[in-house]
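Intended use. Records like the one below are meant for learning the mapping from a protein sequence to its folded structure. Do not use them to infer anything beyond what is encoded.
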Amino acid sequence: MVRRHLFISGKVQGVFFRASLQELAEKAGVSGWARNTPDGRVEAVLEGEEDAVNALISWCKVGPPRAEVKNVEMEEEEPEGEGGHFAIR
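Structure written out for the chain above:
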């Protein structure tokens, strides 16, 4: 079990980034959350099996069709037990 805290920048708000990430995370069995930040980024926490989390991180580097991802900052954190669901905050 791993936990990754991401900050995704670029054209990532208003392009269904969070909703798309939620759908993919739930299909992959990854818990966590995503929210828009006031500075125009998307902040996300992904917690689950390492391969599934890494696949979602790779997706975040591209995003949904209308997104233009410029950068993904990532921090490794200790798993906190996100409760088995992925929320949009």
